[in-house]
Amino acid sequence: MQNFPSNFKTILSFFSITSLIVLMSACSQNVKPDGQTGKTPTKSATPKVTKPEPKVVYRHFPPDVMYKVMVAELLIKRDQASAAYPLMYSAAQESKDPGLAERAFQLSMTTFNLQAIEDATNLWREVEPNKALPWKASYLMSVRAGDINTAMAQWDHYKTLSGAPIESVLIETGLKVSQSADRAKGLEFLTKLKDTYPKEPASYFALGLASVNYGAYRKAIPVLEKSADLYQKGSGSTSSEDSIDPEKINREIYLLLATAYLKSDQPELGMEKVHPYLDDHEEDWELQEKFARLEVKAGRFADAEKRYLKVLEHEPKAFTSRLSVALLQLERKDYKDAISNLKQLRQLPEYRSTANYYLGLASQGQGDFKQAVKYYQSVKTTDYYLDAQLHIAEIRFPEVGLERTLEILNSLQARNDDQRVKLYRAQAIFYKLAGEKQKAVNMYSAALQLQPENVTVLLSQAMIYYDLKQYNSYVSNIKRSLKVEPDNVEALNALAYFYVERNEHLDDAEKLLKKALALAPDEYYILDSRGWLYYQQGKYDQAEADLKRAFSMQKDDEVLIHLIKVKWKLGKQDDAKNLWNQYHRNFPENTELQGLIIQLEK
C-alpha cells in the first residue's frame, strides 16, 4: 500500500571574530563598544558593559605615555573605544605596564580585528607572564587558528597559573572552545586534551559537551557515557573538597545524552540509556521533558503526553511542555484539550503567534473555518506567518478558485529557499486539486531546482507521476529519495508496493519491505504491502496473517480488498463474504470493493 504524507508541510552555525570576542570578554573587565549608549539593549555580540576606571597611576608615566593614555580614556568616554585602542596599545608597548597592557587587551576586543586582539594578548602576556588570563586568551586564539600543539602548551601554562582544580579547568575549556573555535579545530584540540588526561572524567565530559554544542551528536555519546562511567568509579585526580558535586555533573551528562540521542535520531536507544537514571531522579522535570521528546521521536505519543502532563502538574510554567502536549493532542484530534492548552499559551507574548497558528489548525480540524481564518490572520511573526497564509488560501480555495488562489500565493514574500519551496509546494497542491496534474509536476520540479534532495517534494511529485502513469519518473523519484534517506519508510514501502502491484522484482520488493518493517514494525500499510507480496508469491497463509493484522490496526478499504481476495484463494468464501457484508458500506466510493464479490464469483 502506498502511504505518502499530504500536509503542506537549519540551524546554521558559524564562527566569527564576534564569537571570539564574546568568549574572551570573560577574560577581563570589558569596555563599552563604539556607538553603544547603554540606554537601550542591542543585538551586538559584545555584552552590555560599563566603562572601568583606568587601572593606572598617571604620575608613573612619561609625558608622551601619559598623553596617549589620557586621549584614549577621553575617546572611551565618547564611546569611541576602537579609536582608543591604538593609543592605549602604543602606551602599553612603550611603558610595559601590566595595567596598561590589560587595558589595551580590553580595548582590542572592541576592534573586531583578530590581529589587534592577538597583538594585545601577546603584549599582556609578555609584561605579565605569571597572570593566567592572557594565557587563557592565547590558547583560545591558537585553537581558533588551528595551531593545536601551541594551544596545548598555552593551555597547560594557563592551567598551572589559574590554580583551579583540573576538573574545573577541563569543563570550562570544553565550553569556551566550543564557543570560539570551529568544529574541526575545536574537537581536534579537545580530543587531544582527552587523550592527554585519559583518567580524568572531566576530559571526556568536556569533549562530550563541546560535541553536543557543535552538533556532533554521535561523537558525543560514547565520550559522555565514558565520563559517566569514570565519575561513577570515582576516577580523577581532583581532591574531594575541590571537586564538583558528582551528582550535579552526572545530571548534566544525562541531559546532554538525552539531547545527543534525540538529535542523532536514536530515540529508542536513548530511552534505554537514560531511563535507569531517570527512575532514580523522577523529580528532575527538565530531564523528564527531554525524555518525553525521545518518546515523541520514537512514536510513543501516548507515553510522551502522559509525561508532559506530569511535568506540567509540577511545573505549570513549563511552557515548552505545554506546547508539546497541545501538539500531541492535535495529532490525535483531541481538539478540546489542545485548544485549552493553546489558549493558555496565547496569553504569553512570546508564544502568542505560535498559539494562534496551532489554534487555527485546531479550528480547521474541527471544520470551523471562519474561526480558523481569524486565528491565522492573528499570526504576525515570520516563523509561522507564511504557513498561516497558506492555510488561509487552502480554506478559501473552494470559494475563490484556482486563479485567485494563485494570485494570493504570488503576492506572498518568501525570505529564503525553504519558504520558496513551501510556496511551490502549495501551488502544486492547488494545481492537483484543480486537476491540472502536469502543472503540479512542474511546480514540484521548480522546488527541486532549489532543493534537489528534498525528500518530501520528491515523494509528493512521485504521487503525481503515478497518477499520470509516468512510472519511470515515479520509480526515479523514489530511488532518489532513498539515496538521500536510505531509511525512509515511506519511500521503501512505496517502491516495494509498486513492484508488488506490477508483480515484478519481487525479490527486491521483499528486501525493501523487510527493511521497512524492521524500522517500523507496527505500520499497517507496510504489513498490507507484505501481505500482498505473499499473495503474489502464492504464500496465502502468510498473506492472510499479515493482512488480518493490518486490518485490525486500520479499517482501510485497500487492505479489506486484499484480505477478501486472499481468503477467497484459501477457499474461505464464507469468511470473505462476511467481511464484505460487514464493511463494504463504509467505503461507498470504492467501486472495486462494491463489486468485488461479483467479480470473484465469475
Describe the secondary-structure layout.
Elements: H1 17-24, H2 63-77, H3 81-95, H4 98-108, H5 114-127, H6 132-145, H7 148-162, H8 166-180, H9 183-196, H10 201-214, H11 217-233, H12 246-263, H13 267-280, H14 285-297, H15 301-314, H16 319-331, H17 335-346, H18 352-365, H19 369-377, H20 382-411, H21 417-433, H22 437-450, H23 455-467, H24 471-484, H25 489-502, H26 506-519, H27 524-536, H28 540-553, H29 557-569, H30 573-583, H31 591-594, H32 596-601
Summarize the structure.
By secondary structure, the chain is mainly alpha-helical. 72% of the residues lie in helices and 0% in strands.
Model description:
By secondary structure, this protein is mainly alpha-helical. It has a domain at 486-602: Tetratricopeptide repeat domain (Serine Threonine Protein Phosphatase 5, Tetratricopeptide repeat, Alpha Horseshoe), CATH 1.25.40.10. Helix content is 72%, strand content 0%. The protein is built from 32 helices and no strands. Helix 11 (217-233) runs antiparallel to helix 12 (246-263) and helix 24 (471-484) packs antiparallel against helix 25. It is elongated and about 110 Å long. The two termini are 26 Å apart. Residues 5-58 have low confidence and may be disordered.
What is the CATH level 1 assignment of the domain at 486-602?
A: Mainly Alpha
Mean pLDDT: 88
Low-pLDDT residue intervals, each spanning 5 or more residues: 5-58
Instruction: Give the count of helical stretches.
Output: 32
Helix content: over 70%
Strand content: under 5%
Q: Span from first to last CA? A: 26 Å
Using DSSP, what is the number of strands?
A: 0
CATH topology of the domain at 486-602: Serine Threonine Protein Phosphatase 5, Tetratricopeptide repeat
Radius of gyration: 32 Å
Query: What CATH architecture label of the domain at 486-602 applies?
Result: Alpha Horseshoe
